[in-house]
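Lab meeting minutes (informal)
Scribe: AK
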Amino acid sequence: MLRYRSLTDRQRTQHEAIEAIAENTSSDRLLLQPNGKWSIKDNVAHLAKYQPVFIDRINRILLRDEPAFESYRAENDHEFPLWQTWEMRTLLDRLYADREEINLLINDLSYTQLSLAGVHKKFGRLTIIQWTEFFLLHEAHHMFTIFQLANNIEL
């Protein structure tokens, strides 16, 4: 499966909407945890923290024959609470830097490499293209949550 424009465009720019969505949000609102759920900042921390996990997974797929992966859960990541303490600007800067690494990694892969696969515990065998789509859809889900929280829309 080859890269397709929608995938490449979203991979390159989708994350940029996070800052635009949250830019006029008060500090209090960034930290508001409705019904004990994640705040805007927690969602951004999760997205920023997951990018290195995604990079590691792609590199493992490139090095091994169909490695298996558990579902990533921030609650099980001992580093995630530290990321939640970071300032919003720090999280966004890290998000941008790691996205550049993702872009370089994925864009430099050959057709053969893009066809390599890893096995997700829940979703099964996914090629690197499918992992990238999964990554972007997951990010979009959290971005929608951020949009709802920033605009005081009930979850």
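Next up, CB showed the second protein from the same session:
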Amino acid sequence: MPSFAELGDETFVSLTTFRKSGEGVPTAVWVASMGDALVVITQETAGKVKRARNNPRVELVPCSVSGKVDPDAIPVEGSVEVVTEPDRIVQLMRPLRKKYGLQFRVMMGSKRKPPAGRAVLLITSADDASA
């Protein structure tokens, strides 16, 4: 099982956010490390953003581009903060831009300003939150 920090080295992770009912909703996402945290960029109107605002608990596990998870994989718990401030988004996008290079620029545009309608999920380890 990868540690929280090692998840930042994965190409894709399955990010599970939780509905008010407690039901988990997994989504395959790009992820990058930024210090002791992980960052994910997404549409500001995405369901995972709404769920993260209601419940900061998340689970992460390595996956394929299609979201397929190894049946023996054990999720790592984290806590998420939704970031929508343009200046912070620019800063938090840097590790994603560096890690995914051309793919990132094609998906997000080559400009260094935050793409309109985007949010960054800043994820910290649940172990750090409880320490």
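CB comment: Helices lie at 4-7, 47-54, 86-108, 126-130.
No objections, moving on.
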